[in-house]
Amino acid sequence: MKFIPNKKEALLFICMIAGHFLFSQIDKEATKETKALYRNLKIISKKNILFGHQHALEYGHGWSNEVDRSDVKSVTGSHPAVVGIDFSGFSGHSKEEIAKTAAILKENVIATYERGGITTVSWHFRNPVSNEGFYWKDSSSVAAMAFIKPGGSHHEEYKTILKTIADFAHSVKGKDGTLAPMIFRPFHEFDGDWFWWGKKYTSREDFIAVWQFTVAYLRDTLQVHNFIYAFSPDTRFNSEAEYIERYPGDNFVDMFGLDDYGDFGRDGKYDLEAGLNRLSIISALAIKKKKLAAFTETGLESIPDANWWTQTLLKTLKSKNLQLAYVLVWRNDTTSPTHFYAPFPGQVSVPDFINFYNDPFTLFEKDVVHIYGNSFKIR
Asked: Known EC number(s) (predicted)?
């Protein structure tokens, strides 16, 4: 008997086939929730942008470890749509410390997933060769990428670290048993010289070799199928050719990112034209290669400019028909009176941030419904 689908089934089938051609996700075995997130981020980027904040739920200005709290929610009534966490504690520590860190982050990721928010993961990776932090120190740091690549002296140790990440990825299950998708952003700002994996200390060939191994090992060997992989340099490019100088290839990247503080007011210096040009490059690349783009890090420390949100950030994001899935600002330190990037009650930019929040273009957690499914919509 010939199967004749009804209209709803036929439409869903057409959308699935179209999605195969419209989107170029690198993990063909990604969970259905991860595939849906990828697809819905692409949809969002065409007319809106999600707002994100690093470490939003772990701590904020003057507080830490409080259930369902974020500085953004205290100001607007909604958590950010994108919440940043970090895998910095997953190596260079005792097994007990790593397990404790993983348990805290697991709670955070699952809670965000259950609420319908999105987790993005940066990785301030402790140097596995010199056993130091992630910043480069001229007196003692080691250019470790050459040692952790396949065939390198510390490659097996690197595989063990990736196994810790994979174990975490397999652990973040919601109440229905599905895995929470995450946007994984390793080796960020690699074009700078402040991290040990930076361009000054790593050849192009070694960087690409480590990136390709990292993705292939997590995806194909360790069977991590709830990651979307983001590639995000800092600002040392002014053309597409410069941006993709260390690009590992279309089979190893899902999202083109940019970390840019310098053009958006750091140290009182603004170059919005340069910032917009860089965002235009990653947006155009994503369209051309059928992938995603995002403003993966930015912000103005202390936010002394009371109208920065609408007059600097929002105006830029709305320019040139950019297609960016999200914009993420950096963290709010618990104790520092000056190291914060999102407003908190009483901060000078709160009124403008509320205008930013209320603009139909920007989306916060409360604005998105079913982002991990086919029935996704914007409130």
From this structure: 3.2.1.78
